[in-house]
């Protein structure tokens, strides 16, 4: 090796270590920046020159080393694992937050809510049976019926408000544009657009010169995973392809599709469309392709489920079913007719002015078809004339039936509805009372709420572990950086010393030549 070779190799070595120290400085400067992926300087041997086949010739052909590239510590497997864990944690966090609100609504079914209103209603019916002509008892009975109706209305309103907040009102499609799912979809689309742009820039600059862009892209992918599960595939040119389910969202530098949230129907109030970039619809309903994250959680909690999972739509259907069953059962008793046996209200004998029984034709609750939790209401005609309440049930074939105003058989039958199995807990035959069903359903909501809270705790622990593992691979470690700094400093000092020694020898040789 010549003196010139030694000096050139030493000089380049000093430059290499200077650049390596700059990388360490960059890492140390960003060690507290959230999501920063540390960099490393990769050294590579410079091409050697063949000057012969002997050892001396091979030594003379040596050409030192250089920094081949500055790369990040991004780890694809760890990144995919961290994104999957992040998506699951965000899914259960979102579900848990919504279930907490459903839990508050379900409290309106309990002892201080609808169940208390039922108890007041049936107690009022029982009290009215003791004195069926008492105007005060009739008024209390009507007020208790109104209390039940208003409690149903309140619960339905709370469910509708929660659903509208999440996905809008499917009966007014434009409202979805103010919903949580619409905003999440728009943010997700913006992320896809930026992801494609980053891939494009990485292709232009080359992966080896795009550490900052790759760092931004990895953080963006983590953010996108909070919306739904993603499948990320890394390409040789440094770009990535991203899919959800079987739908390719981004391929390298091109965004393939965009998502759109639209209104559906009663059972499926929110639908995610997949559109081509020109806006034409490619998949009209991609709900089954989307899982995990915020968007997956919202879809799961608002749309009807057939696996026993309680959703907003499912809860609303159960409350509607109960309101319809309750109103129908009470109305059937109120207007009971079976041959000569008939429900009777109070009327007035036009000849004497005395109270008499008259056939009951006015229902207690308005006859919507079907009656729902938000539509149930007490018949205005009965409110205006409480004598229309059918307290008696008599055989019209018996002479003088109209004089039997003290009969209370019909209102007793209304009170007995409290103990009638009118609702079903598992489908099929009715097996529980109204109040029994409320207890059962409130318990089911509570169990699901507790189950989701437990799953979030587990998912959160897994997520924290995955993020910690990823951070341990990609994050800046002060001890490692200080060790590299000392190593590179010592390398620089050794190279400088070699350069000085070669320079001194060169000066001696020059002096001898003179």
Describe the structure.
Helix content is 54%, strand content 13%. The protein has 514 residues and is α+β, with helices and mostly antiparallel strands. The strands form 4 sheets. A 4-stranded antiparallel sheet has the order 3-4-5-6, covered by helices on one side. Strands 10, 11, 12 and 13 form a 4-stranded antiparallel sheet that branches. Strands 7-8-9 form a 3-stranded antiparallel sheet. A hairpin with a 6-residue loop joins β11 and β12 (355-359). α3 (76-106) packs parallel to α7 and α4 (114-130) packs antiparallel against α11 (409-415).
Summary of the model, kept short:
The chain is an alpha+beta fold and 514 residues long.
Keywords:
514 residues; alpha+beta; four-stranded antiparallel beta sheet; 13 helices; 13 strands; rod-shaped
Chain-wise SSE layout:
Elements: H1 3-29, E1 39-45, H2 55-60, E2 65-72, H3 76-106, H4 114-130, H5 135-167, H6 180-205, H7 211-225, E3 231-234, E4 240-244, E5 247-251, E6 254-255, E7 257-263, E8 270-276, E9 281-283, H8 293-302, H9 312-334, E10 337-338, E11 341-348, E12 355-359, H10 380-384, E13 392-395, H11 409-415, H12 434-474, H13 478-513
Antiparallel strand pairs: 1-2, 3-4, 4-5, 5-6, 7-8, 8-9, 10-11, 11-12, 11-13
Helix pairs in contact: 1-13, 3-5, 3-7, 3-8, 3-12, 4-5, 4-11, 4-12, 5-9, 6-7, 9-11
């Amino acid at each position: 090796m010549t003196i010139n070779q030694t000096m050139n190799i030493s000089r380049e070595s000093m430059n290499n270590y200077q650049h390596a120290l700059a990388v360490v400085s960059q890492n140390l400067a960003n060690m507290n920046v959230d999501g920063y992926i540390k960099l490393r300087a990769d050294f590579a041997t410079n091409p050697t020159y063949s000057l012969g086949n002997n050892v001396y010739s091979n030594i003379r052909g040596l050409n030192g080393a250089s920094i081949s590239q500055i790369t990040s510590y991004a780890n694809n497997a760890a990144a995919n694992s961290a994104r999957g864990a992040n998506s699951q944690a965000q899914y259960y966090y979102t579900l848990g937050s919504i279930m907490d609100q459903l839990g508050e609504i379900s409290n309106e079914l309990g002892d201080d809510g609808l169940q208390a209103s039922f108890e007041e209603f049936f107690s009022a019916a029982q009290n009215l049976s003791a004195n069926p002509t008492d105007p005060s008892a009739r008024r209390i009975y009507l007020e208790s019926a109104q209390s039940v109706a208003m409690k149903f209305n309140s619960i339905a309103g709370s469910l509708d408000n929660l659903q509208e907040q999440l996905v809008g009102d499917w009966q007014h499609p434009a409202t979805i544009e103010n919903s949580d799912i619409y905003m999440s979809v728009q943010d997700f689309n913006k992320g896809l657009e930026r992801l494609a742009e980053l891939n494009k820039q990485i292709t232009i600059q080359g992966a080896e010169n795009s550490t900052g862009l790759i760092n931004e892209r990895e953080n963006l992918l983590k953010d996108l995973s909070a919306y739904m599960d993603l499948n990320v595939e890394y390409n040789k040119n440094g770009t990535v392809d991203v899919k959800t389910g079987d739908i390719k969202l981004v391929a390298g530098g091109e965004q393939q599709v965009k998502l759109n949230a639209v209104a559906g129907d009663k059972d499926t109030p929110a639908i995610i469309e997949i559109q081509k970039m020109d806006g034409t619809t490619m998949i009209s309903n991609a709900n089954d392709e989307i899982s995990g994250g915020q968007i997956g959680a919202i879809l799961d909690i608002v749309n009807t489920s057939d696996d026993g999972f309680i959703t907003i739509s499912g809860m609303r259907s159960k409350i509607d079913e109960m309101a319809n069953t309750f109103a129908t059962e009470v109305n059937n008793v109120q207007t009971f007719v079976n041959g000569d046996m008939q429900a009777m209200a109070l009327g007035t004998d036009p000849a004497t002015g005395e109270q008499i029984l008259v056939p009951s034709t006015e229902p207690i609750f308005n006859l919507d078809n079907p009656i729902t939790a938000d539509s149930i209401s007490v018949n205005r005609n009965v409110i205006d004339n409480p004598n229309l309440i059918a307290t008696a049930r008599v055989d019209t074939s018996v002479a003088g039936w109209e004089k039997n105003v003290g009969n209370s058989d019909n209102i007793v039958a209304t009170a007995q509805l409290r103990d009638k199995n009118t609702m079903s807990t598992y489908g099929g035959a009715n097996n529980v009372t109204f109040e029994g069903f409320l207890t059962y359903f409130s318990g089911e909501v509570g169990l699901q709420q507790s189950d989701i809270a437990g799953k979030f705790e587990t998912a959160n622990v897994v997520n924290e572990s995955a993020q910690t593992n990823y951070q341990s691979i990609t994050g800046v470690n002060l001890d490692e950086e200080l060790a590299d700094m000392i190593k590179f400093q010592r390398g620089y000092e050794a190279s400088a010393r070699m350069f000085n020694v070669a320079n001194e020898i060169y000066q001696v040789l020059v002096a001898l030549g003179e």
